[in-house]
Amino acid sequence: MKLIASLTSPYARKVRIALLEKRLDCELIVDIPWEADTHVPDYNPLGKVPVLVADDGEVFYDSSVIVEYLDSVLSQPSLLPPPGLEAVRTRKLAALADGLCDAAVAIFLERKRPPAHQSVEWVSRQQRKIDAALATLERAADDTWLIGGRLSLADIVAGCALGYLDLRLTEIDWRARHPRLHSYFDRLMTRESFLQTMPPSS
Ligand SMILES: N[C@@H](CCC(=O)N[C@@H](CS)C(=O)NCC(=O)O)C(=O)O
Question: How does pLDDT run across 183-194, given as a tens digit for each residue?
Fold first, then answer.
């Protein structure tokens, strides 16, 4: 298998963590989709990372779909519960944390535009999503794991989303406002899979 990814993408980190948790071998191909010489659109019509190329050449994208594919390749440790309400709740929390990432990425990209083209209203709208998502995660983070008593896709996405805030939106002091989330994140960050995939600072 090959994973096409950038090292700062929280969505790609999600897949890299899943691969490490499952101890699956996978070649990492670093490709930055914003650069002119990117090959990402050759694999994903949306031009986004991560993309997984399976051993038989089939291509998978969207990070959560890739994690589901990895669960089908190697069922243990499973990152999604079997079909049922717990699986739906796991996906819901993962969707929430993905949405937090989407809003943070939107702010990061907006700030890269020339100042005269930046929209204060757009940034505020994204900021409100981040604040509300953090408050919801704070309520969910009352134990070691968000759901089901073990590591799941929800924890991986939540950890990647919080890590992305630390990388790109350092002015958001989410730890001070969300003490349970702070402790939950610190516990998560002791895991080898999270430590090995820390994003570089640029
Ligand atoms: N929902 C997608 C989001 C992927 C995504 O937005 N990746 C960003 C990097 S953080 C990207 O490749 N952006 C390039 C673009 O939007 O053209 C997933 O979970 O895989």
Answer: 999 999 999 999
Q: Using CA atoms, how far apart are residues 92 and 85, in angstroms rounded to an integer?
A: 10
Say if residues 12 and 5 touch (Cβ distance below 8 Å). Answer: yes
State the closest ligand 1 atom to the C-alpha of 14, by its place in the atom list counted from 1. 19
Question: The domain 2-73 is classified under which CATH number: 1.10.287.70, 3.40.30.10, 3.30.390.50, 3.90.226.10?
Answer: 3.40.30.10
| Start-to-end CA span in the chain (Å) | 27
Task: Please list the ranges in the chain whose pLDDT falls under 50.
Answer: none
Of 3, 7, 8, 11, best ligand 1 pocket probe by most atoms within 8 Å of the beta carbon: 11
CA–centroid distance, 50 to ligand 1, in Å, is: 7
| Closest CA to ligand 1's atom 2 | 62
| Domain boundary assignment for the chain | 2-73, 85-191
Polymer length in residues for the chain: 202
The CATH-assigned architecture of domain 85-191 is: Up-down Bundle (1.20)
The string of pLDDT tens digits covering residues 66-94 is 999 999 999 999 999 999 999 999 999 99
Tokens linked to 119: 């929209």
